[in-house]
Amino acid sequence: MNNSMVILKNFYQTGMEWIAKYTGFLRRIRLTYWLFNLSKLTKLSKNKELYRQFGINKAIWKEVAHADIKHNSTDIPWMDREDITSDAIRQHPQFATFSPQIQEQLLQWPEKGFIIIPGLMTNKVDELNSEIDDLKKEGKIYFNFTGKKIFNAWQHSTAANQAFNHPVVTAVAKFIFQKEVIPFQTVNFIYGSGEKPHSDSIHFTTEPLGYLTAMWLALQDIVPGSGELLFYPGSHKLAYVMSENFDAGHTSLQLGLNTRQRYEAKIEEIIQQHHLTPCAFTAQKGDVLMWHANLLHAGSPITNAQLTRKSFVAHYFAKGVLQYHEITQRPAIISRPAL
Fold first, then answer.
1. E strand or H helix that includes residue 203
2. Which residues is 302 bridged to in the sheet?
3. Spacing of C-alpha 99 from chain mean position
4. Where are the beta strands (DSSP E) in 126-281?
5. What are φ and ψ of residue 205, in 5° steps?
6. What is the pTM for the complete model shown?
């Protein structure tokens, strides 16, 4: 590694933790992310061929967005295909490897865009909560600038890593995609997120579209008033909303101001237009919800500030697709394979 790359790597290691906690102007200027990307060129090199394939005429360390893709792929996840049928799902050889409960849920995926697996990790939750509490006290994990999210605790917690790589969850993701799965990122919440309705695809984006899924694990019994997770059944069938579909406000040198709020306003228009109705996930400890890349979901308002809503969220990309973040226009960095 040459001296310039060592400098960039050191910049990242000493500076990015501070930036993760900071919510000011530096988070918006593209130079911050360019320097980060330059320090990760080895990990981004896999994108060179994908850029050529999709007609993206940019350096791999620069910003990338859906609008940069000139040759969209016709590939879509297997269970997103218009000709998918219940019989085709049942007849797939992998279908028989799932429990009857999960089989029933998978048959509803094309129409609803989610599955619920009750009690899948009940026996892991106490250990995971204990490890998160200890790691917070030791300062090894921390809340990001929102004050609500702890990213990638799996890198420090054995229990979180086991939940992240749970064989049933990864098998379901692989079945939905019909591609190998890359566990990408985890987020721990102590309280409800309070997030407005959104699709994960604005944050974790793929080309071809749809090759992402999320897993939400209840780390306690969820009760009304705690900011329960909301999701909108069937909303995954709506058109994906990308930066070119609303006024993102981006320029060549910085990200837009209030881009997320502008996106959320666009999503609210869509919800009203299609008369979508949310479902609240009042889960029991250990229950798992998995959802489609484009399923709209949110955190309901917290009406009792004394209540926690401990949860563990994980995101999974399909292997071999372009992975990036549409709202911040950054290529995704896969730190290392989860163990």
1. none
2. 226
3. 26
4. 149-151, 181-189, 205-207, 212-218, 229-231, 279-281
5. -115, 150
6. 0.92
* pLDDT in the model for residue 23: 56
Six-digit token string for 22: 């900071």
- Read off the amino acid at residue 253: L
Is the pLDDT at 1 greater than 60? The verdict is: no
**Sheet with strand 288-292: strands edge to edge:** 114-117, 288-292, 212-218, 311-318, 181-189, 149-151
Whole-Å CA distances, 113 to 6, 31, 150, 294 = 44, 37, 26, 8
Tens digits of residue pLDDT in 193-251:
999 999 999 999 999 999 999 999 999 999 999 999 999 999 999 999 999 999 999 99
At 20, is the pLDDT very low, low, confident or very high (cuts 50, 70, 90)?
low
What are the two backbone dihedrals, phi and then psi, of residue 215, each rounded to the nearest 5 degrees? -125, 130
Q: What is the DSSP string of 308-325?
A: ---EEEEEEEETTSEEEE
Of 192, 197, 193, residue with least CA distance to 264: 197
What CATH code is assigned to 74-331? 2.60.120.620
State the average pLDDT over residues 176-193. 96
**CA-based nearest residue to 215, from 144, 264, 286:** 286
- Per domain, the residue ranges of the chain are 74-331
- Quote the CA–CA distance of 197 and 278 in Å, as a whole number: 10
